[in-house]
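Q: What does the assembled structure look like for these inputs?
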Amino acid sequence: MLQKGFTLWFTGLSGAGKTTIARIVADEIRSRGRNVEVMDGDIVRQNLSKGLGFSKEDRDTNIKRIAFVCKILTRNGVATIAAAISPYREVRDFARQDIGHFVEVFVDCPLEECIRRDTKGLYAKALSGEIPQFTGVSDPYEHPLHPEVWLHTERESPEASAGRVLAKLEELGYLSPAEEPVYSPEEEEKIQERLANLGYL
Amino acid sequence: MLQKGFTLWFTGLSGAGKTTIARIVADEIRSRGRNVEVMDGDIVRQNLSKGLGFSKEDRDTNIKRIAFVCKILTRNGVATIAAAISPYREVRDFARQDIGHFVEVFVDCPLEECIRRDTKGLYAKALSGEIPQFTGVSDPYEHPLHPEVWLHTERESPEASAGRVLAKLEELGYLSPAEEPVYSPEEEEKIQERLANLGYL
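A:
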């Protein structure tokens, strides 16, 4: 039976944590028996958008290509994850309309923190002017106004962020809750003991 | 349960019948309860390859993009159909390796017949020089050496061609045979009578 496809769309600055959180979410969805595909910005630039630059027009073209593939995967029941900066609101909204089953995740992180992390060493180059048109530095980022999930990665762990995304997918009916773990009587006793010690019982 | 994905790759001259046959095949596969996607050359040029021209390099880039999407769909159990001229053998062989479950269909039709049909009016323009780099006229077409299916559309109907493609998919285990029709006793009697009249019984 075909499961309900959807596209989980991560947007945010370079270094905000999109790919990291996307991978944790993907692993968890996969472990629940679903087909998952991650359309990562870098992979897509390599495979579908080589030759495109970073003007607004080229960025929009790149995002529309990602949306095209996400749409096809989504209608075939795949749990599809896009993780690309996608700085412009209008083209994200186009993707939302075009794909239909669309869950937007704003991976929010202050620019200062992204610069501090500088995981790929790109901010240093952007700030020195070596890379022009860098989102957040010399190019705009238009954050979502009503994302389904709004993460704050400067103050929560990637695992906690992933947990909030998964909870939203369950709430929207795109994902079945993880099965309750089955404990042996001994394990159950230990858990009860622990809960009692913590004052929950 | 995930069904076995595959990519059915139609190659041949413009006007040879790729899209026509692909659509008949797609409808039949869909009627057997499978998810089907058709990556038509024109649709892909519009959505993934706008801006690319018809040099060998640009054609190869276009085909690699089609192959990238076909690969993702195939590994998610979709019956995927590509219908693009794809004139160069090397990049088709790349697609075969990259996708894995790959069934190549050579839609063979003599150039003279394609020019006579000229369904899109493109050959007239190519022959007058209005369109440069037109496959078969001013650009090469390297036909497959060992395609899984070799169609001859100048001497068989699109339905007959589609039937041969479907038979090959069944033979390769990618597609379950169509269910036997169930006849009423009256219908069964008539069929027996007809077979007897034809000398089969």
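Residues 17 and 143 of chain B are 15 Å apart (CA to CA).
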